[in-house]
Amino acid sequence: MKLFNERSIILSEKVLDLSFRRHGILTSNAANSETPGFRAKELDFAKELERAWKVGSPNLSLTNNLRLTNTRHLNTDFNPASNAKLVYDNSGAVGADGNNVDLDINLGKISTNASQYTGAITLLGMKLKMLKNAVTNKG
Fold first, then answer.
1. DSSP three-state, residue 60
2. What's the domain count of the chain?
3. DSSP 8-state symbol, 33
4. Contact residues for 125 (Cβ-Cβ < 8 A; gap 6+)
5. What is the pLDDT averaged over residues 3-29?
6. Has residue 12 been placed in a domain?
């Protein structure tokens, strides 16, 4: 088992970034639950995470014309804040005012998203602690 797997740490970072972005989208939905004509939005989390995983492959040409020449290089090509795909969330029924935000469903999604974020933080913290212990010879 590898102690320091850069790809898993980078993927954890992407999970944190996407969860943070999704939280903003879900809270925007909740804030607009009474706005006539508002349509709920959602981040396609699974698709964005899959894209982040593919972007992490070695020798990938980056948009800023850098090239990964070593698998230990950090990949800077994926920026979820600027290019994550938003889709309309049609899980709620459309009311007479044209709004489709179901506040109960949305609050459940916010709670689930917070749990995913906390889990990713915990996993990343454990990996970094393992690395620290290996470096300081305490493990």
1. coil
2. 1
3. T
4. none
5. 83
6. yes
Residue 98 lies in a domain: yes
pTM > 0.85: yes or no: no
Q: What is the pLDDT of residues 64-116, one digit of tens each?
A: 445 667 776 555 444 444 466 788 888 888 999 999 999 999 999 999 999 99
Q: Which of 10, 137, 134, 127 is nearest to 72 (CA)?
A: 10
Rg from Cα positions in the chain: 19
**Which range marks the domain in which residue 98 is found?**
6-135
Contact 36, 74 (CB under 8 A): no
Q: How many CA atoms lie within 13 A of 20 on its CB side?
A: 12
Phi/psi of residue 86, nearest 5 degrees: -100, 140
Residue 1 lies in a domain: no
Two structure tokens written together for 29: 């939905």
- Give counts: helices (H), strands (E), the chain: 4, 2
